[in-house]
Amino acid sequence: MTAAGKHACAENGVTSRKKRRKANPCGQSQEVEPQRDVGFKLAGELGQLVGKGFLEFSPLPWVWELISFVEEMYDLHHEEVEHQLEKLRDTWHRGDRPGGEAAEEVTRRLWAKGVAVYCPPPSEEEEAPWCNSGPRFYVSVTKAAWERFPVGAPAPPKALQKLLWPHEADRALSKEGSWPNLIRGLGWALAPPRSSPQALHADIWGNDRPRPGRVRFHHILWKRQGSLCNTQIVPGAFTDGETWEEHYTQMTTASAPCLLVDNEVLHRGAANPSRNWVSTCSIELCTRTGYEEVWKESSENDGVYRMLPICWSG
């Protein structure tokens, strides 16, 4: 299940079945069962990434053509996207998800340029009853990437390869000769001015397929021009997207120019108290393990949306 309600993923190992109360933005609650991760047995950076769900880097440590591509697209389109969304502000609270109508309209206007706008989980009030307070947006340039890299994206540098794909299952070509890893999305997250924090969520999880002791869905986040990411993460909270009251007291702020995050861990975008739109560049990846265990049977694998392959095998 994705945070948008499309996809699915589960956690490795259960030692306690003690019931917890699930937090709900408008005061509802339900019983859920906590689970735990076993990734802390791994050493070093890889152990922290698998166990806690994130790593911090300062400065951005990799030179990769795909990173440059996202920054190029940001420079070309971010002002127009923000201007168009601002013009549609009076529609932001219509429909099932805040900002959805505006995102669809801006996508229609910019589709020919390879740009689409989506609505991830919204912002929510910081006091009871914690209702939705406004939209968050995600600007996708995956369509433009397909046009730039029609046979597949360039490989990342070796240091990043080793961190992303340490397991043989995610390194070898398939029997059919296809590349082992894919790009779920390219673009930037966008927080409107005066936004409260985003709702706590996981981006993807796999209900009946527990995490196999490695990351299936990586998310590279970075800021430009010396700014810091401030994503709030609940370390080790791989809960199939379920949130409990205690998670809100367990959050830590990952503060660095670049973050590498496991998309299955609970996290949220921090508040934006400024008068300006705030963006964070983003590359989301899918390993072969993630594709086989989660994506292939999900509703997002609808035959229309295509993930861009990465031209690399180890």
Any overview of this molecule?
- The protein has 314 residues and is α+β, with helices and mostly antiparallel strands.
- The protein has one domain: Sandwich (Jelly Rolls), CATH 2.60.120.
- Helix content is 21%, strand content 22%.
- It has seven helices and 17 strands.
- The strands form five sheets. Strands 4, 5, 8, 9, 11, 14, 16 and 17 form an eight-stranded antiparallel β-sheet that branches.
- β6 and β7 form a beta hairpin.
List SSEs in N-to-C order.
EEEHEHHEEEEHHEEEEHEEEEHE
Number of helices: 7
Low-confidence stretches: 3-41
Helix content: 10-25%
CATH 2nd-level architecture: Sandwich
Mean pLDDT, to the nearest integer, reads 87
How much strand?
A: 15-25%
List its traits.
314 residues, 17 strands, disordered N terminus, 7 helices, three-stranded antiparallel β-sheet, alpha+beta, Jelly Rolls, eight-stranded antiparallel β-sheet
Strand and helix map with partners:
Elements: E1 9-10, E2 20-21, E3 31-32, H1 44-52, E4 54-57, H2 65-87, H3 100-110, E5 116-118, E6 123-124, E7 132-134, E8 137-140, H4 142-148, H5 158-164, E9 182-191, E10 206-210, E11 218-222, E12 229-233, H6 247-250, E13 252-256, E14 258-262, E15 267-268, E16 278-286, H7 288-293, E17 308-309
Parallel strand pairs: 1-10
Antiparallel strand pairs: 2-3, 4-14, 5-8, 6-7, 8-9, 9-16, 9-17, 11-14, 11-16, 12-13, 12-15
